[in-house]
Amino acid sequence: MKITEPIDGIFKIEVPFERIYTAVFVICLREGYLLIDCATTDRDVDQRILPALRALDLTDPPQALLLTHSHGDHAGGASRLREHFPEMEIYASEAVKSLPYRHLSDGELLFDCLQALHLPGHTKQSVGYFHLPTGTLISGDCLQQRGVDKYVNGVRYPSLYRESLRRLRTLPLCHILASHDYVPLGAFAHGQAEITAYLDACERHCPKDF
Question: Coil, strand or helix: which one is 52?
Fold first, then answer.
């Protein structure tokens, strides 16, 4: 497990997943914190996420768990987290198992600092979170580039993906934080030149419409 703080007030927990990792993000608030995604298994929660929170001296329950999409490597730990934090609210764009959740609206402002952005392409319901104080997009799997490891480009809906890329080019992004170390430009982009290159790589490797 690796914990970094790529942006002030945003921590990244790298949880091993097969030969790669899936990132869990911690967003610090004036009071408390949020989690974005929750890795794959109960074991990930017990042996990776909870120890990371203790290492960050975050002993209270999270204000909420925000999911980027329902794939198992991002949402698989949700049930276990709810066992540990029964009052924790889950925000998502689609159901995860039978867990109760609050449905996200596109553009919705959350906790006075995050804007939920509907960014389909990887899935039809994929969501990114735009951290307004720092101009940081936490993109989950919304931005695929060439993919990662054996998962070669996970764009399932190319036309929707291109629309999402066009939308992102209109936003005042300062940073991009992705959930995997995508090829060729990795999991982080900082500043306009790197962000443009990042989005260009995503568009360049977008598959043709099926």
Answer: helix
154 forms bridges with which residues in the sheet? none
Amino acid making up residue 53:
L
> φ and ψ at 85, to 5 degrees?
-130, 80
Chunked mean pLDDT (size 10), the chain, 210 residues: 95 96 97 97 98 97 98 97 97 93 98 98 98 98 95 94 98 98 97 98 90
Tokens at residue 35, please? 């989690």
Gap between the Cα atoms of 145 and 206, Å rounded: 8
**Are residues 166 and 149 in contact, defined by beta-carbon separation less than 8 angstroms?**
no
Q: Looking at beta carbons, which pairs linking 51-59 to residues 24 or more positions away fall under 8 Å? A: 51/1, 52/1, 52/3, 52/11, 52/13, 52/24, 52/26, 53/26, 55/3, 56/3, 56/11, 56/26, 58/26, 58/33
d(CA 35, CA 26): 5
